[in-house]
Amino acid sequence: MISDEDLISLAKVARTRSYAPYSRFTVGAALVTAGGRVFTGANIENAAYSPSVCAERVAFFTALHAGARDFSAIAVVGGAAGEPLRSFTAPCGVCRQVMREFCADGFRVLMTDGEQIRETTLGALLPESFSPDNLRENG
What we know:
The chain has helices at 4-15, 55-65, 93-102, 122-125, 132-138, and strands spanning 25-33, 38-42, 71-80, 108-112, 117-121. Helix content is 32%, strand content 24%. Strand 4 and strand 5 form a beta hairpin. It has a 5-stranded mixed beta sheet with strand order 2-1-3-4-5. It has one domain (4-138): Cytidine Deaminase, domain 2 (3-Layer(aba) Sandwich). By secondary structure, the chain is of the alpha+beta class.
């Protein structure tokens, strides 16, 4: 199984593939399945802004397209383009909701400021979330 440090390293590499000419805030993500497969993503901006997509969603959508469904953790790193990591970058609200579509509250989310690794869970980041379970209860 991949270590947290290795997952963070893969997210850092993914960050180098970011396309962020407007915000100049580059983000990389590395998503691991329960079986150990890793999928990476980087944020990709667009001049119209709303068609932009976050690194976490790129990683998830790539994994889903490849047939993966059982996820155990994601590492997310971000910061000013060309600069070392200086602070923890948490997934945005939209990415949290995408994660909730495919992951339970215990799904691990790793972040780093370049020195320390911070671990949290999807449940802590998105309490009282709306999930597919809500629709099954009402349908």
